[in-house]
Design goal:
The protein is 61% helix and 7% strand. It has 358 residues and is mainly alpha-helical. The protein is elongated.
Length: 358
Amino acid sequence: MGCGLSTPDNDGGGGARRKQGSVGDVVVFLPGLRAPMGVDLSQALAGRLDKGAVERLSALRARVVDMAMQESAVALKPRRKAAARQGSSTANLLQALEDYLPLLLGLVKEGGELRHSVQFVWTNQEDKAEETAMADAWYEVLSVLHLMAMVCLLQANSLLLPRAYGDGYGPRVSEESRRATVDVFLKASGYLDCAIRQVLPQIPSELRRQLPVDLAEGNLKALSLQALGQGVDMQLGLAIDSPKATLAVKRRLACEMVKYWHQVQESIPDLPVSDGWGKKHLLFVKWKYVEAKSAAYYFHGLILDEGNSEKSHGMAIAALEASEEFLKESKRASEVFHATPPTSRNGGSSSSWCLGDH
């Protein structure tokens, strides 16, 4: 498991990410990138598929392999310039995957021998010794969709890091960036939902048991819900900044966040915690869930306080006190998350709201 990272600590070392002491600024948490390894499609598909189609498929996959390995190398050997280049590099990788996927789907639709004629190999960037190889084109489709979602989450993390605009104000996350991340989060969730509903059922149960933890159904579902939850978080922040948004709208968005993060907790499977990454992911979920509950109680309390009765006023005080307690707990959870190895920094505002500000 891993973190979306940008503008990390000055770390010139290499090696697997699990050995890093710090991963820099983190706003969006996600598993490490799974990168495809090169395979000889021309030999595996010779005489079984049109030569032109094989050449096109080989070229597109080779492009994906090259770009995915480059992106993994940047994540594994981060520099201060990572955030600046990540936007264009992830966009290019996503486009390469989008070009490759339709041809790959054509391969699986052929069925029969073609589906099982290629041994597809993928490795997780955090431990290059951990390779998973399967002679099933649906495994390749599943891996591609997962990588597309992870690239989207990397884009979201980069967009949500504060930037200086040379206007005399301090670094900040622009409204344009926050609006853009809503679509990026929805896209990531959509890719994962497709993987769960359309692809996993195509893979035999005995092969599904051999899938790496990144591709386990519970993890795919949890990450899909996590993307939705963080997308709603951005919508709440935009609503807070909008004079037209009512308290009812803000409370509804906060309650949606609570629902999504609760579902994430229910969906996420037991993760390996021996190397710290699984533990860090679980801490991230706990932090965001408690933070969402604080927001929901806060806006609920403000609505209750608009009532004229003594009862509604008393209920408002209770709700606001609960919100403050959850806020304190979320701050503690945030500190524990960022201090847990590999350590990280809060890349931006951890919450789109604050008690007493609205």
